Amino acid sequence: MATTLTVNGKRHVISAEPETPLLYVLRNDLQLKGARFGCGLGQCGACTVLVDGKPVQSCDFPLSAAAGKAVLTIEGLSGNGRPHPLQQAFIDEQAAQCGYCVTGIIMTAKALLDTNPHPSDAEIRAALKGNLCRCGTHQRILRAIRRATASGVKA
Amino acid sequence: MTMGQDVLRKLPGNLNTNRRLDRWLRINRDGTVTAFPGKVEIGQGILTALAQIVAEELDVALERLRLAPADTTYSPDEGMTSGSQSITDGGVALRYAAAEARFLLLQRAAVRLGVSLEQLSVADGVVSARSGGSVSYWDLATDDLLAREATAEIAPKPASQHTVIGTPAPRRDIPAKVSGAPVFVHDLDLPGMLHGRIARPPSYDARLVELDEAEVRSLPGVVALVRDGSFVGVIAAREEQALRALARVKRLARWEEKTVLPETTDPRFLLQEATEDEVISEKRDAAAAARAAKTLEAEYTRPYIAHGALGPSCAVAQFENGRYKVWTHSQGIYPLRNDLAGVLAMDKERIAVIHMDGAGCYGHNGADDAALDAVLLARAVPGRPVRVQWSREDEFMWEPYGPAMVVKLKAALDSTGNIIDWTEDIWSNSHSTRPSGLGGINLLAAWHLAQPFKPSPPRNPPLPGGGSHRNGIPLYEFPNQRVTNRLVKRMPVRVSALRALGATANIFAIESFMDELAAAAGADPVEFRLRHLKDPRARAVIETVAAKAGWRKGEKGDGARGRGVGFARYKNGACYLAVIAEVEAGNNIAVKRVWAAIDAGLVINPDGLINQTEGGIIQASSWALKEAVRFDRSRILTSNWDDYPILTFEESPQVEVTIVNRPELPPLGAGEGQQGPTAAAIANAICNAMGVRLRDMPFTRERVMAALA
Hints:
The complex is a heterodimer.
Chain A: E1 2-7, E2 10-15, H1 22-29, E3 48-51, E4 54-57, H2 63-66, E5 70-72, H3 85-92, H4 102-115, H5 121-127, H6 138-150
Parallel strand pairs in A: 1-5
Antiparallel strand pairs in A: 1-2, 3-4, 3-5
Helix pairs in contact in A: 3-6
Chain B: E1 25-27, E2 33-35, H1 46-58, E3 65-67, H2 86-113, E4 120-123, E5 126-129, E6 134-136, H3 137-140, H4 174-179, E7 194-198, E8 207-210, H5 213-217, E9 222-228, E10 231-236, H6 239-252, E11 254-256, E12 275-283, H7 286-289, E13 294-302, E14 314-320, E15 323-328, H8 333-344, E16 351-355, H9 367-378, E17 386-389, H10 392-398, E18 405-413, E19 419-428, E20 481-488, H11 503-520, H12 525-531, H13 536-549, E21 561-569, E22 576-585, E23 589-599, H14 606-626, E24 654-659, H15 675-690, H16 701-708
Parallel strand pairs in B: 2-3, 7-17, 15-16, 19-20, 23-24
Antiparallel strand pairs in B: 1-2, 4-5, 5-6, 7-10, 8-11, 9-10, 12-20, 13-18, 14-15, 14-17, 18-19, 21-22, 22-23
Helix pairs in contact in B: 1-2, 11-15, 14-15
């Protein structure tokens, strides 16, 4: 079975069963390792990518559902080797401990800022409902997202 | 001089067990310096701090530092990265090694420039003579420079000369981690790599009695099925094919299960178990005891708590030409190698264990077990690397939890409200069942093989660091005191080291009880602690946090909101930490704000210390409010995040950390000091807010309602 999808602006034809979770296609077929496996159940958000601009948990999202759509992963955020303003804000705020959850969180934040460029603190927290962090880096992460907002990012 | 009879002089930190300088450092001709730490990054930022130490002592820019990944083929054996000991053991070793390397370079420079040592100064690796002339480390260094034993006779710089140590340094690993680069062992993708999954039994002692192996082998992409006793693994070309094969095994396999788990998840079942008792502190003053005017008793518990790494454990292994290569996020590559060699019955020199980052572990989780899983699968497909990824369910059901504990306390106050007698009894399993224990193999799959290995007998690391009795002895000064550790040997639930070991429950109990006693004495909890504490550093963190939080003497909550204090010196020998937590009762108990003051002696990376302290406080808030592993008589019932909720972004508190800086004093371990004081401060805040005393973690809505009823 071949499925066509666009990832970070590039068209790919993937030979895999249509029910294959998008996460494994990204990580193994396309060697994009930035979406992480966290639970395989859509509970933790470590695998978050954007499909047609909306955040999805790619561990729980079949390849067939991504057919013909535009997928954006963390690797597609930075341009010309320069970090995206959200990524830069995470660096500036030192908003990571182990860093396993951050790529999914940055993608969720990107989707939020795309639709709501000046979210309130409560809106940021609510947007991160589906993302877990086990190290307790929450307040630095919230600060980083606020910083990206404050710097007037058009993400 | 006679040879061979001198006992080796003790060298600082892990330099003592890894004495050659070139085990730790290499000065490269290309203008870089490579450090070889045996300690590993587990999200605590240790590699950044170690780089700062080397840059400081060598007088080179931080950017010149390279850190070699820990690897049994060349790294110093630093045992485990655990117990908040990486700065005090590993950092100190690198500090002395770098100071000595600098001295050796200066000696060479003096000869080269024809001047005395006193004439020389160094700036970023360039040695200059006062009279003119200079030469760089990169020109002076040769392979033999550090090919010698350390003497540790060159004193590291005094704090007054520090320019790198004590200055916030950005974490070296964060840019790559936010970029999505393949930095985790989970991301390793070797040519020809296959994907493995393990079909774990449904319960601890379940035995595999039937499996149609042929049917599994016939599935698309399946390369091998490995079955050895009750250990079953599948190997497939593609990851989703391995998952499908796993699902089929789970459907086809018939297991024989037993009832082996405790009757109840209430930790009080421990009170019925046989124990090995040890009085760990005893003080008697009969005259003081005779002044007893009021006596209080209370019992506190902590349930089994899961590490719950966000990324389930993973490992990659390759078997080729009679040798194994294993990539792992283990906290101890050498101890892991010992146990792998034991299972494989082979010379450990034929196994290379290489560390790569994993998700934060907070102690002994499934990392080492996954490494053996990968090895057992790789053995079946020589030449091909095999990646084993644990599922969420594997991690939750099979990781060794932080043990459940019960702490009973009894104390007497005199008529002036001073504690004159303190009796404490601690019930717990061992908190240390890591690999490389004596007399057994501490790796999960080894217990399921047709020729099974036995785990090593549980051990309780000795005081002062301690295991179940870590922080069991209060830092407060009481004229009469008796603390007894009651070690429960039988371990019906798999347990091991979780961040802070027994300190969490012991400090939760001691600090909750201090508040109960303060109330009985009609005293303010901050003042009450200070009156029982002599150590000026302990007093300073409590006074600092009280000032930062604007603590008002005798402050009372308003029925919904309240604040509480908690304090400990971690391990009674590492960092001092005091916290004040503010809670608000709504549908659930919410921790809104936490203030903390920490004294960790000389601080290498202040931002790293703050990050760790914030993280520990937020994680401990999650433990305190929400977390407990559930099980019935045969099975663990906690298998995913719905079963085991943790603190979310909507629930996370605001945390303000103040460092009480002591640059002139030795660095103190600080990665785990937050857990106990935070749990206690929350319990005390709940009592301050609502007048109910919660003595069982976690402090759920149900428990608050029950206490109010």
